[in-house]
């Protein structure tokens, strides 16, 4: 390789590195700005109770897809750790629903704040070919309605979860 070609390649690599760094910084700034805008809407999540009754809906293992502001299924909630997709287990109790997430705080959805449970084909960037996402619509203490998405490894129990909410 001759010297002008080497210099041109190094300059191109440097420009490409600067552009990629700028794009990543812009995306991170956008994520932080969205979290700041949503902080007042979301507020504090309901506390996890010390004790709960017997299990009323079977535990499901799968992936916590995320939370969205209702009814906009593409408007991801990014406050705290609600925006991160992770492995999770959901369990239904008479008092509410527990979403235990790997590497994140658990989410407690009190029964009195539960609005509906349904299946969806897609939610916050996760699309399925069939109704593969269990969407739980509930009201936060601030009054904001959100949808919490969960994709189970085995979707056979979805009808029982939907029936449980009614």
Automatic annotation (TrEMBL):
The protein's matches in InterPro entries, at most eight in alphabetical order, are given as:
PH_bac (IPR057446)
Looking at the Swiss-Prot or TrEMBL record, what is one Pfam family this protein matches? bPH_11
PH domain spans which residues? 43-165
Name the domain of life.
Bacteria
Q: What is this protein called?
A: Transporter
Q: Look up and give the organism this protein is from.
A: Mycolicibacillus koreensis
